[in-house]
Amino acid sequence: MTFRARISIAFVVAAIIPLAVLAHGVRREVTHRLTAQHERRVRTLVDIVRQDLARESASIAARLEILEADLSSDNRFRLGAVRGDGAHRRYVLDWAEGAMEIAGLSVLRVYDDSGRIVSSGHFRNEFGRLDTALPARIAAAPGGQALVRVKTVAGSFLALARTVRARVGGREFILIGGTAIDSAFFARLGRDGELDVSLALGTVAARESGAVETLPLVFVDDASSAPTTTYLAITQRGNELQTLRRDVDRWIAASVVLAALAGGVLIAWLAAALSRPMATLARAALSIDFHTPDVDSVSARNDELGTLARRFAAMTRRLRAGAARLRDAERRATVGDMARQVNHDMKNGLVPIRNVVRHLSQVQQHAPGELATVFGERRATLESSVTYLDDLATRWARLTPRTERRPVDVNAVLREVATAARDAYAVPLHLRLQSDAPQVFGDPVALRRIFDNLVANGVQSLSADGGSVTLSTDCTDHVVRVTVADTGRGMTQDEVTRALAGFYTTKPQGTGLGLSVVRRLVADHGGALHIDTAPRRGTTAIVELPAHPTPLHRTRAMA
Amino acid sequence: MRRGRGVGRTLVWAGALCAIGACGGGARPSPGPSLGKATCALAESPSTLADTATLHFRALDVPPATCAQALAAEWLRPWGTGSSDRWAVRIALTPTGASVRRLDSEGARNAVDAGYAVLATEDLDLVAYASARPDLEVTPLPWDRTYVVLSSAPVAALGAGTGPDAVRVDARAAESWECESVRSGTPPHAAPTRSRRILYAIGDRTAQELAARIVALTEDREVAAVGRSASALDSALIAGEDLGYVISVARASRCDAIAAIAAKASWVGSHSLRPLIDTRAYAIAPRGPRP
């Protein structure tokens, strides 16, 4: 996962998710409280509307009561309407108009006891029209009020009307007065500005109006039709609650979007400030070795990355310096190692020669006449040792002792080793060779070095009290196993481990390279070295070498 | 604006045109006698501006002020300015006639209060107010205007029951009359009524009240009274597509006026005409010798 992806995830986890949770909580809480407050407010407003409506109705009733009192004591009206005095007829016809204006009503009619309009304020010239149904229907309506359709010269309008009875000169008159139900009336009722009040004619219309409250009213459309129920529908103007919710949602969405945008910018900036230099540093780390210059591309920064880059560059410089010193040390160690190996091999090769020379000197001193005979006997040893040293010298001359592999008879090599060891060391050395041991594919010089070293180690481990070294071979179909066993002092496991690692010896003049050289050469031949030893129980070194499939060996294997 | 020119029978024609608002170009001929035996000879048609008019006349056997009041009531009523005030004018005599100024309600009462003004009005409240002044003499002028309703619809009852009570001027039920110059029977090109409106001329409050009375007595709830300017009313009357038209004509030349209307509106005939009321104005003048 890239650093940028990690930053993005961290931002989402640390910022976006908490912000979203916060936004959700705030929205939920705000919505809950707003809804509760709004509902309380709407209920209050509806109550106010209901009270205003009742107050309006009461106001109409009060004004009608005043007019009724005025009418009862109006002599000119009495003369015109009751006594039929033609001189006052015009006064009667005009009475309602003036009274309506003074009373602040929109509708005023005076009916006589026969149901005929005597005077009309809103429509002066409808006098004489018979309308017996309307006063009765208004009076029968709940609360004594009804919504009526009132005819005028220019059309009709709706009014909230009430009735009052008046007695003038022994005759009964009915006054119908009311207030126009128009936009101004609805505006007065919905004065808060938050509510709309409208008329919904019929139950279905009221239900479909989406009103928060409906107030029923009896509606008298005209004299010929029965009263119906209409409703004052109170609806929320513009649905403030939804507007508030929408605003809250909008702000929350804006906050989240803004946070996301800010996060994106932050991530981009962090990527540019961190991820990119780190990627550059990583690429530089890939290309850094001990020969390329320092990485200076980010070292100019003054932040932690700049410090890291500078320290990285300093580290590479230190590593390179250390590597140079290590190479020098390795070179020196290699030279010393080579010198010690040469010394070791030369010593091993010189031991038989020195012993032969010492033997010949002793013969010359004590039996000069047998010198030629003894020399003849020991000449082979001398030539073999010289040849061996010559091969070693040739190979060491090439610095790297390369192996030159070919099919080798291990038993022959062991016999040479045994011969040289017998000449070199005055210890019993036994050979138990399997006669049909297969050849191995190897370097005879290297194999001799292996077995010379093992025999030398075995001889040198013997105590002065005696002991012997035994060389034996046995083989399976694919492995030739050479065992060099001594009856010497043996080694601990730790000593074995350290001896195999090299430069460890218990001998005063030893180089500590014997076993390590053996292990390396056996490994070069694809074989294995096993050391079975214990203190005071001698050591058995087993060298397993892959058998070379000679025709003879193959035939025997097939058989 | 000049109103009228010429003499004799063409007076009636011009009166009819003015009744339908078509007298703007001054096509009224010289007046004939309208004060019974008293003679008020209008020298030329009255010229009117927004609130003033000039009458040129000769008064024979009557005081010039009386003649001026009668001529003003006959020729300048209704004024048709669109004002809601009742018709009232103040008259100032000139060597050749009189200068007439239209007054609003308050101005008319202020003039009455001054006590020396010569007025003519149809405002009954103003008449009552002036009658209470002992220094003023209030006399009714002749029944000089007749209001009729014209309708192409077969509404026999349209206008029935519409009498003097419907208006706030001095009025009486119109007598029915027969005009030889107006065709009788169903006209061949009666226009179908398309609206439920009763039209009247804006500014003619008496016509407005008559139209309202017609509406009040109509069971049809859709019927409404609508005011129109003189020219619009003239056009609508010619088209004849409305339910009815309330107009006024000079009573003395009513047959000629209706005939003139019928000449333009082919649907108009005796069947489509219902006389409603006659109206008159009042003269108010200081008591004592008249100038």
Task: Give a description of the structure.
The complex is a heterodimer of chains A (559) and B (291). With 559 residues, chain A is an alpha+beta fold. Chain A contains 14 helices and 15 strands. In chain A, the strands form 3 sheets. Chain A has an 8-stranded mixed beta sheet with strand order 2-1-5-4-3-7-8-6. In chain A, strands 10-12-13-15-14 form a 5-stranded mixed beta sheet. In chain A, helix 1 (3-72) packs antiparallel against helix 7 (240-287) and helix 9 (371-397) crosses helix 10. The longest helix of chain A is centred in the first third of the chain and has 70 residues, at 3-72. By secondary structure, chain B is of the alpha+beta class. Chain B folds into 2 domains: 10-143 and 281-286, no CATH class; 145-279, 3-Layer(aba) Sandwich (D-Maltodextrin-Binding Protein, domain 2). Helix content of chain B is 25%, strand content 28%. Chain B has helices at 10-19, 64-75, 105-114, 124-131, 205-217, 230-239, 254-264; strands at residues 39-48, 52-60, 88-94, 97-102, 118-121, 136-140, 145-150, 170-173, 197-201, 224-228, 244-250, 273-280, 282-286. In chain B, the strands form 2 sheets. Chain B has a 7-stranded antiparallel beta sheet, sandwiched between helices. Chain B is globular, with a radius of gyration of 19 Å. In chain B, 53% of the residues are buried. At the A-B interface, helix 3 of A face helix 5 and strand 10 of B.
Task: Record the strand order, biggest sheet of chain A.
Answer: 2-1-5-4-3-7-8-6
CATH C-level class of the largest domain in chain A is Alpha Beta
* Helicity level of chain B: 25-40%
Q: Helix count of chain B, per DSSP? A: 7
**Domains counted in the coordinates of chain B: how many?**
2
What's the CATH architecture name of the largest domain in chain A? Answer: 2-Layer Sandwich
Q: Tell how many strands the DSSP assignment of chain B holds.
A: 13
Using CB atoms under 8 Å apart, which protein chain pair has the greatest interface?
A: A-B, 18 and 17 residues
